[in-house]
User: What shape does this take?
Amino acid sequence: MRRPKHRSIERLPKYRVTIYRRQPDYEWSTEPNMKAIFNSIDRLAKTGDLPDEELLALITTGDKEAVGRLSARAREVREKVYGRSVYIRGLIEFSSYCKNDCYYCGLRRSNRSAERYRLTPEDILSCCAQGFDLGFRTFVLQGGEDPFFIDERMTALVRQIKERFPECAVTLSLGERERESYQALFDAGADRYLLRHETADKEHYEKLHPAEMSYEHRMKCLRDLRGIGYQVGCGMMVGSPFQRPEHLLKDLRFLQSFRPEMVGIGPFIPQKDTPFGDRTSGGAGDTLLLLSIIRLLLPQVLLPATTALGTIDPMGREKGLQAGANVIMPNLSPVSVRKKYLLYDNKICTGEEAAECVQSLRDRVARAGYEIVVSRGDHPSRQ
Ligand code: SAM
Ligand code: SF4
Assistant: This one.
């Protein structure tokens, strides 16, 4: 049989995956060429890039020593850019209504078991006031794609928050909207926007979303946000259904080309009332590994250790900080609604243990070797 002249990228991963067999959460493995993999890690740390084949070998490594080295390099880079500071963002989950039907999410419209709520502007402002006193200087307003929050309502809300807390940044995470809507929100004072791309592979995107949602539109939204001038966050779930290492490689290449100011990644966690309710969760080890790689690819990026990571591993957020993350997003929503914003099962921070306990969070972060600071925590390019 004749060998093809050029192996496509789709074929390379299969080859690599066979060699560098992934093992769950940092089990020791017998990597065939540790010298080569260490060399790749050091070159990634030095140059911020690697060829596909080497990057893929890192994504799929299960070797404890390789992971440790990657994490150490990511820490060094993070400390060079941000020192030991950790930025905190007060997350206000203000609506659990959603018109979309993403197959992975507990808030999807077809989930009849989901309890729905909307916070009033007064509720939201009082969350901000409480957060301000606790030292938060960024508020993240996140919700399902709720048609109730038309531009007039949202812009009025953003204006009120900015008037009352002028030294604070407002981050929005409201899903896909028209460019004019993003512009109106920006003009009202919103500083940043989080819209995970979810996957940079169109076919994979289509397996995670119903036909009415499109990969092209998601990408257009991200370009619109960037064009308007927001600090933009994208990201993906780790271990989402049908995800293969090649998809993660594409995600990393997308992040490198789009150069977002923030990257949110966390493990996929099943929610029992969704079509993916019986799937397995993404791994904490895989998520930590990717956090480190992302820190090395984008040294200045704002990188949260997410709630989902803290949900699958009780020390997940601390481990995330030690793997290169520099942001945490405690929940500032009223305790009475927290259990209703259930994207996935067993979500942490649904009780009293969330933002009120900033002091205990400070202690935990300090034990991990870092320090929570009172700051807006903008991307270095915007400071
Ligand atoms: N509706 C907005 C959107 O989709 O961008 C913002 C809220 S949405 C719940 C925020 C993020 O939650 C999504 O981008 C998705 O990556 C994540 N998410 C949803 N379901 C999840 C699950 N089962 N496991 C982990 N993360 C999930
Ligand atoms: Fe709605 Fe966002 Fe959940 Fe999709 S991920 S169903 S858009 S809340």
